[in-house]
Structure formats: structure tokens, C-alpha cells
Fold this sequence. Notes:
The protein contains 19 helices and 17 strands. It has about 600 residues and is an alpha/beta fold. Helix 2 packs parallel to helix 11, helix 2 runs antiparallel to helix 16 and helix 11 packs parallel to helix 15. The longest helix is centred in the last third of the chain and has 35 residues.
Amino acid sequence: xxxxxxxxxxxxxxxxxxxxxxxxxxxxxxxxxxxxxxxxxxxxxxxxxxxxxxxxxxxxxxxxxxxxxxxxxxxxxxxxxxxxxxxxxxxxxxxxxxxxxxxxxxxxxxxxxxxxxxxxxxxxxxxxxxxxxxxxxxxxxxxxxxxxxxxxxxxxxxxxxxxxxxxxxxxxxxxxxxxxxxxxxxxxxxxxxxxxxxxxxxxxxxxxxxxxxxxxxxxxxxxxxxxxxxxxxxxxxxxxxxxxxxxxxxxxxxxxxxxxxxxxxxxxxxxxxxxxxxxxxxxxxxxxxxxxxxxxxxxxxxxxxxxxxxxxxxxxxxxxxxxxxxxxxxxxxxxxxxxxxxxxxxxxxxxxxxxxxxxxxxxxxxxxxxxxxxxxxxxxxxxxxxxxxxxxxxxxxxxxxxxxxxxxxxxxxxxxxxxxxxxxxxxxxxxxxxxxxxxxxxxxxxxxxxxxxxxxxxxxxxxxxxxxxxxxxxxxxxxxxxxxxxxxxxxxxxxxxxxxxxxxxxxxxxxxxxxxxxxxxxxxxxxxxxxxxxxxxxxxxxxxxxxxxxxxxxxxxxxxxxxxxxxxxxxxxxxxxxxxxxxxxxxxxxxxxxxxxxxx
Length: 600
């Protein structure tokens, strides 16, 4: 189904050769607004309170007409060592309050659920890596449940309502716990991660049981005992590590076993692989065990902090009035797509992209000309001397998409190897707000899942005729702005200043409370830096066009309203991530000169 405006070939060539495809200035004439589309409520228990698990999930859900029902933030928050504790007196989430809250939503008639298992059973992702023993969950009525009982009870209750659609999100424990939590430092992290990467006995078929996997934790690939001292860790650290892994794996196995029983047909299990490796590491048999327990509709994919994005999108695709299965042309620039995008991936980049396409029901087009969506991916450079050429080739492809109104997903998997070169080209020569989605921020393991989930979500929304919904367009622009600003302004620019300032103040950029340093000075460094660094990005976004339809006519195009940012802060009191408030005005009519340049 090819329904897009075709630009005259000669004009395209001229524009591309002369570099005349520039961000445009959109007039402030408002676009006629449609009626906001209401898709329903989703009961959501986040993995933790970081932006990728909280507000960015809210934006994505709202862009699809959903309202995300969230519990009290304190109930799903994580605090690092020496930082103020949650109101219930811990560094991790309130498992009992969350369990009872979900039951309250069920009693109130909610019928969509996206629930992170690590939060419900362990109080969040970080704490799940440190819990080496089962801790009872005391409820408000005085009774206490084991974690296994909590899971069984919750799943049984939600399964009793045949109208419920339930998404359980689980994770494969990463190779080492989190620095700055439970007394765990960088030296311990480095040693334990090396210990985790070391080859273990590879189990297959009937050998894959929790007992066999746990028995192999202390063993090298040849079956001999690993020497923990060789990795700079103690025997006690190794024993706690093994116990935490086994506890988590047993809970995952319980979920898969319960899902095979009658009545769980409307449940879906989505498992993310966190901080992994291509080696036959301690995760290898865990991953194989969980993979063989998947049912049709379940999945195990690379990435953890994008799990909620994938669940929201897949939920919407399941509920679309008009089914969507677009053809995608995936185009790599850089020449290393057959390798992992970073040291923390367990598969080559192109394999990870293909697995995500399959999960969302997308197939490969035989050419870009016959694709419904083009996916442009910048990889790490195969030849360092060709960096500029790789960037320019991608920019040219993106410009062509803009001029032909082709839906496009943009992924920067360069892992910082291009410095600011690629970003500078994007700002100067393209409309940052045009793509269906963009991702390049922080962990490479999540960029594919983040970009593809957001991109197919927007495409499906437009394919179902909802492009003029004011509320959804505002939410879409917010999530686009968040991804672009966090990557182009914060990751490779302002974050470096924050890290430097933290060191000058005598502190640790990984935890501003270890030791406690002047947070006001750090906040000023952040806000001043972002005001300067984000300014050209916001100008570009405000002058961008975006798709509000797929029919290729003038009505399928709109202009961004003015975008602004405020209220910058560090949600975990560390430099790794930041939070902001995003304001986007109503969409405007597209610039007439740009419309006139599009010829059918």
C-alpha cells in the first residue's frame, strides 16, 4: 500500500545535492483540531521511577489515546545509598501497597494491566539484583504473603475476569548489581561482572531446569570450580550473587508454569535481557530456559528499560480497529550492523532489529521504494575515516523521506563513536520533528526497541485515522522532544559538564549523596547547560513538520507548535538521567512553500 506524495526526481536530486533541504519555519496559524480519541485506561505498575519507566510511558500511552493509571510514586521509587528513604522506610518499592492497589483497580473495573514483576516481587529492578533471600510481604490486614503467593494470588485474581488483558513484564538478571546500592561499589561491580561473563556449562533441552542452572553458577565451562579470587570478589559475594539469581529465576519459572494453565489466554509475558554478553556467560542457560517456556504471543527480547514501551504498543496493535502490518525497509549506515552495538548486547544489532520487527508484526520490504516505513540506522563506523560519509548518506536518506512524506524511524546506534558530528548534521540539515520516532539515548540495548515501538505505534495510530486528535498529538510531540533533547543535548554535552561539576565539588557523579554535595550548584549547571544546548533543538522542532495522516495529501501534514522545556532535575540524584517538563503548543498548518514543493 503506497500512499504518499511523490516528489519530482529532478527536484529531489537538486535539493539534496545543494543541501537545500533545511528545517522550515512554520507559521503560527493553528491547525483545525479533531476530537481527542479515548482508548481506555491501563493499570500500570512501573519498573521504577526513572523517566523511561514513568513519564515517557505516560506520553506514549497518551499518544495512543490511553490513560495510564499510576500508583503513588513513592510506592515504586528507588533511592541509592545515603539518599533519603521512601516514606515506608526502604530504598525500594512498597510491594504490599502495590499488590493491594492493583486489586483495587480490578475491583473498580479496569481491564488492561501492564505490570512489572520485579517491582511487585522485589520493589524494583535494582533491588531485584540484590535480594538473595525471599522476604514476606506484609499486607495492611496483618496477613503476610510469600513472593510466590503474591504472584499466584494476583495472577489468579486477574485471570478470573475474562475481559482482562494482562501484560507481565519480567527481566533476565544482568551480569552485576547496581553501583551505589546496598553498599555495592565500582570495584565490586567490575569484579562481579567479569565473574558473570566467564563461561559456564551450556545446558540444552531437558537439562534446562532451575536446579541444573543454579548448580552450574559456580562452575567454569569445563565443569571445574571457578576461583572467585581471580575476579577480585569474595566467596560471600559470589554466594549472595548466586542466591539472588536463583531466587529471581524461580519466580520467573513460576510465572511461566502458571501461564500454561487454562484461563491465561489473555495474559502476555514479555521478558527483557539486561546488560548481557555474547559469551557463554552465567545468563546463557537462564535465557535458554526462559525462551523454551514462552507461549505464542510471549517474547524474550533485548532491552529492559524499553519493555513498557513495547507492551503499550503491542497492546494497542492488538486492539486496533484497522489491523496494521507494514512493510519496513531497514537501511544501515556505518557497516557494523552484524556486530553488537555495544559491549552490553548479546546479539548483533541487525538480529535485535529483526526480532523487534517480528514482534510488532512488521515484515521486510524488498526495497525502500516498496516500503511503508523506512528505518534508518546509524551503526558504529567500520572505517573511522568514513564517519562523515556514513552520516551524510543517512542524512540524505532522511531528507528524501521528508520530501516524499515517507514515514521513517531513526535510530542512532553509533554509541558515541561519532561525537557530535551526526547530531550537528541532524540539527542543521533535517527536521528533527519529522520522523515517527527517534532513539539514541544512553544504553544501546534499548535503542532498537524504543525507536521501533514508538514508530510502529505512531504509524498504527495514523493508519487508524486518528492523526488530528489534539491530546494524542501533544503527547506524541512530547515523547519525540524527550528522546531528541535527552540524546542530542544532554547525553553528549551537558552530562559531561554535570559529571565535571560533581567531581569539582568533591562528589560522585553516580550518587550525589556519596558524599553529599551541593545540589543547588549541580542543578544550576544542569539548567544553564540545557537552556543553551537545547535551544537550537527546540527551534528546529518548532519549525518541523510531522505526519498526521498517511494518504499523502496536504491534510496528512502539520506543523509543530512551539516547544519549550523547564523544571530540570535529577530523579535519582545522579548524572545518568534527568527529568524535565515538556510544553508543546497545538499543531499548526504546514508552511505553504513546503506544501507547494510536494508534487504528486
